[in-house]
Amino acid sequence: MATYSADAQSRKERKILYNSQYNYEIEPVGVGQDGTKVFKVWGYGKEVGDAIINAKEAAVAACLFKGLPGGAGSAPTPAIISEPNAEVTHAAYFEKFFEIGGKYLQYIAVTTDGEPSGQDRLKIKKGYKVAIYVQVMYDALRKQMEADNIARRLDSGF
Amino acid sequence: MVFSLASFSQAKKPIIMVVPSDQYCISRGYANTYENQGMKQTVPDYKRALQTDPDLRLVITKMSQIMADRGFPLKDLEQELKNLEQEGAEMAMMTSKSGADIAESPIDKLKRTAKADIIMDLDFTIQRRGPQKYISFNLKGLDAYTAKQVSGVAGAGNPSAATAPEILLEEAVLSQMDAFNAGLMRHFEDLFANGREVKMLVKMWSSATEDLETEYDVNGETIELVEAIDKWMDDNCKGGRYSRTDATATMARYEQVRIPMMKADAKGKEKAIDARAFVTDLRKYLAGAPFNLTCKVYQRGLGEAWLIIGEK
């Protein structure tokens, strides 16, 4: 039976986490205005700018596929798309949606003042891990998914 | 996956209405007490609650706005109560050219109440923790016919000394409604996948000469009427799903009956069906041989219907 040292196992896990498309690190910060959600999201990148872009993608992707955890007075928010494996079924659509400068940017506003700093900016082995505060236009994003037949409308079929 | 649904016909859309919970009304004094056969009964006074409670109106308005945005405008309880009063007054005044009044049976009078298919049972309290206030929020989505909870959210908001209670209430609604609607969505997906869940009661008029234990020869087999109805239910319920929860010689109760959302009519056109349409098919079956029974179908909304055997 192969054995791993504790350090090697945690390095391997860190690498998997860093590369995982499913790793959205979200922290609720309150209740957003009508139709929006506000939270803190972490992103990874070689440079701070890349990490911020990754964080924005993660913010929109979390709203679509994972949902948002509860906390800071806010109840948990369900994912917009309830269909399992939607990111695989509609891979081509989301490839375009999340491309550099893609449509996902329409649904996110960054509320952090300036560049992340202090505890929100961590230097890690392969680059940076940064946190930004964002406001996602959750209702508008949901309507877009419904219009594109990715998510189901509440009143569909009636 | 594109959801494939009937492109020309749509299923019957449930009516949703927000109703303050009994606990909310009674604890705030929005209730009437009366004697009923020696026992005190307390019933909520929704009209007084809606006319005098600004927090309740704020929460209902906010929820209605969110639901309308999702394609489900809510039926307003306050407006419905006013409409019913107005309707009653107009009906009492109306006469035909020959001087006839509008026919209204006792059962018509009883049915003149605010109704919905899904009730959003709402309860909230502004709680205190020292100088801070926070909202304790509880919302249940109840199927009016099966009495099952189809969705629900509950929770407490962040305490705050600075924020006005109205803002805290608004935040509570904004915070909880997405999860509530996700629960409703799961319920609707279940409806379309497994059929609408309805309730059916089979009863007898006192003038009926047969009862549910009367035997008939059905396809060469001698069976009781209630068994014949069971066999019909096996063939017509979606997936053969139903539960006969109670039966006597003069009554049978069927619950968790799953009916298709749509059905093809005689011309082959897909039509949305409800409990009444489903029970009407049973009535037609019992009108034919070997039963030759005359039955009345009594509708109690989208999700419940009675079949009364004996006469119309």
Account of the 3D structure:
- The complex is a heterodimer of chains A (158) and B (312).
- With 158 residues, chain A is α+β, with helices and mostly antiparallel strands.
- Chain A is built from five helices and five strands, in the order H-E-E-H-H-H-E-E-E-H.
- Chain B has 312 residues and is α+β, with helices and mostly antiparallel strands.
- Chain B folds into two domains: 16-75 and 114-193, Double Stranded RNA Binding Domain (2-Layer Sandwich); 195-309, no CATH class.
- Chain B has helices at 22-27, 46-52, 54-69, 77-93, 106-111, 165-194, 225-236, 275-287; strands spanning 16-20, 31-36, 39-44, 118-129, 132-143, 149-156, 196-204, 215-218, 221-224, 243-247, 251-259, 262-264, 270-272, 295-299, 304-309.
- The chains are: A alpha+beta (158), B alpha+beta (312).
- At the A-B interface, loops of A face helix 6 of B.
Sum this structure up briefly.
The complex is a heterodimer of chains A (158) and B (312). Chain A has 158 residues and is an alpha+beta fold.
Topology (SSEs and partners):
The complex is a heterodimer of chains A (158) and B (312).
Chain A: H1 6-19, E1 25-28, E2 37-45, H2 48-66, H3 86-89, H4 91-97, E3 108-110, E4 121-124, E5 127-136, H5 138-147
Antiparallel strand pairs in A: 1-2, 2-5, 3-5, 4-5
Chain B: E1 16-20, H1 22-27, E2 31-36, E3 39-44, H2 46-52, H3 54-69, H4 77-93, H5 106-111, E4 118-129, E5 132-143, E6 149-156, H6 165-194, E7 196-204, E8 215-218, E9 221-224, H7 225-236, E10 243-247, E11 251-259, E12 262-264, E13 270-272, H8 275-287, E14 295-299, E15 304-309
Parallel strand pairs in B: 1-4, 7-15
Antiparallel strand pairs in B: 2-3, 4-5, 5-6, 7-11, 8-9, 10-11, 12-13, 14-15
